[in-house]
Every structure is written in structure tokens, then in C-alpha cells.
Amino acid sequence: MSASRHAYKDTDFGDRQQAAAAARRAALEKFRTAPVVDEAALQARQAERAANAAAREARQAARRAEREAALLREAEEKIARAAEAERLAAEQAVAAVAREAELKAARDARYAARKAKTRK
After folding, report:
1. pLDDT, tens digit, for every residue of 54-78?
2. Residue 38 CA: distances (Å) to CA of 41, 42, 53
3. How far from 75 is each of 67, 68, 70, 72, 80, CA to CA, in Å?
4. Helices then strands, each counted (H, E), the chain
5. What gap in Å lies between CA 63 and CA 57, rounded to an integer?
């Protein structure tokens, strides 16, 4: 590769050192010319940030309370559904026992009628 194909400048150590010193001076000058912070404006910004943080906390607490209330409602509904299902199951069990009793009574009546027929 020839020297003309390089995209960078061929600098020696002294040039790089001078460039670094110039950059340091420029950064220092930029820092020196920075505007002075106004205490009133700083306190106003801090108060605004504190107010925003308090409002954010309040919104988060409200959302948390809303989620907890929704979970509580959901749990109550689930308990109510389970109680209703249990009540229906109990009713069905009672109805099934009653049906079995009716069938047994009918079967016993048929049996008794058959026996009574043979005894005559």
C-alpha cells in the first residue's frame, strides 16, 4: 500500500501533543465561559422536579390501589362462583338421591305386586 492511499494525516509526536494541549485549552475555556447557575432558577427546577415526583408517586399509588381493588373484586367473584357451583352441585346431589329413592320405591312396588300376584 502506498503512502498516498492513507486517509489520515502523517503527524509526528509533537504535532499530536500540541493538538492535545489545544483541545485541553479549548475545553477549559468552554468551562470558564459556562453561564453561572442562578440559585432561584435552580431551586425552582428542583421544586418542580419534587412536585413531579410527588405527582408520579400519587399516580403510581392510585394505580396500585386500583389493581389491588380489581384483584379483590376478582377474588370475591371467584368465591361467589365457587359457592354457586357448590350450591348447584348440592342441589343436583339431593335431586339424584331423590330420583334414586323414587326409582327404588317404584322397583319395590313392582316387586311387591309380583309377589302379591304369586301368593293369591
Report:
1. 999 999 999 999 999 999 999 999 9
2. 5, 6, 22
3. 12, 10, 9, 5, 9
4. 2, 0
5. 10
